[in-house]
Specification:
With 300 residues, the protein is of the alpha/beta class. β4 and β5 form a beta hairpin. α7 packs across α9. The chain is globular. The N terminus and C terminus are likely disordered.
Amino acid sequence: MAGLIEAQQDIVPENDFKIVARNINRVFRIKRTGEARREFTAVANLNLKVKKGEFVTIVGPSGCGKSTLLDILAGLAEPSSGEIFIDGHKIAGPALDRGIVLQGYALFPWRTVRQNIEYGLEIKKVKKQERRQISDKFIELVDLKGFENCFPYELSGGMKQRVAIARALAYDPEVLLMDEPFAAVDAQTRETLQDELLSIWEKTGKTIIFITHSIEEAVFLADRVAVMSSNPGTIKRLVQVHLPRPRRVSDTRNSIDFNRITGVVWNLLHDIKIDENRDTSGPVEVYKEAEKRNLDSAAL
């Protein structure tokens, strides 16, 4: 079965990573009527390193700080302490090197599919003819050919999310940040979108950080699953998923290894002790980021 590995200190140089989050803390100061101001720590001592082109999913209890972390990565919020770097450059605010896809689509209702997809290109001052060529490419990539001139109200939920993904990719960000993007669609559409997202990722090679409450979704999509604890939120374990790619829902989710890995993540989320004395030849490793040596190192 899956190897459960606690590795030593990471010796891979930080400049080999696309994203480095170092000792991130986020404290909110709350003031309610009739009460003294108090502090609430949403995220504490969080560390994470993500390789270029890696697909990392994040799971954790509600309120554990997953979206707070994504806001910090997007530059929409600042950590109270700690630093996050992309390609060695400290994040100081929103920028076009990061694309964001949210649960609520966030499409402009007065713009067509094509106009929504071209929005980031307009901000970048891309010429009209080039914008058209790029939007054509991504309309085809997300299988919306023939719907270019439709408005959001004319689209299904799944189609709206395809537009949101195409818009985020069209201006060619280095990193794609996704906050429960498939939570609002039905189960069948969700599985279709998961397959399509992996196909897009395989074609574009983008670095993706994907937040979800679904253990199955997290394992199916990821190279690694970051498991967060709550109160305060931090990454307590990283699960390396050694399932073969390309993956498709109909094949991968029926495999014994897939179900074993989802069981490992479930146990971590529910604070159930993992048996460390298992066969280490399988498709999963579990470790703490601060203790990790190298994903390719031999089992200890």
